[in-house]
Amino acid sequence: MYSNQSPQTAYQQFYNNMPSYPQNNQQVPGKQTMVEKYPLQIWVAARAGMSLTCAADLNVPGEGDTKNSPMELHTGYSVFRMAIASSEKGSVVANIPANDIPYLLNQYQFQRNILNRQAMSKPNTPAYTVPIKERNCKNRTAAEVVQMENGLNILTNARKFFAANLDRYPKNKQMVEAIDEALYLYQSHRLSQTINLPPLYSSPVKPKSTADKNNRRTAYSISISGSSSLSVDWTFEIFNCKAFLRDMGKLKTVDVEHAEDKRTLTFKVTQQEMDLFIYRLQSTLENFERMNFSGQYKIAKKHVKYSREVPV
Length: 312
Prior knowledge:
alpha+beta; 8 helices
């Protein structure tokens, strides 16, 4: 899934190969341009056959809004819309409320500082720098894999596979050396421990407001987590399903256990892509609030004046 292409090159190929997109940026009659199709998009990361996008769908409380104060600057429907699209597995979507962004930004700065310090303190040897390209190792380094649950067996089996194919794949030698070093350090209790951070952001499974003809709703959850791996730094995971709402007294929750059409997609981004994502979230939110502050303040003052004039 992950290629050596730059995000710009990969995205241009992704853009050119989409059936509804004009080729070579030339508009085709009856076809929508990218700007027309995704006018609210603020960020994208793309690989061959996959993309992760973020669109800003921000909304201020209107003058007749009785649920939200004008000075809160956001309604409950003010969100950043996330989507992972795969040419093979379809797409999944999720919302991050605008009011969750300050928390996400603070957590990101906190975790990024920890991961940076950890990366700088690690020894610059194969066990800590060479990604192990084996399915169960998930492109982590040998030092990371050995600390996973059942990591010792995973590494031992991976070493057997790489060692048996050294003649056909000379690059396997580098991974064998990395595994040998990690196993030695682990057994001699000299392995630098990896800090396992909680998810940067994680939402419970939430229902969308509209239901289908069977009264089922599309529900979603999203999580963003960091990794100390040198190859891929951040993972986005979005879950979608169709489910009924379960009545829990005053609360209604999504009945995930009996849900249908369950689908989970993940997308990994580099540190550079993640920095741009965070920058776009912050700048978009700040500019939106700055742009609307004056108008919302006038609405608030109008309500204050009206409440003083109307007898209680």
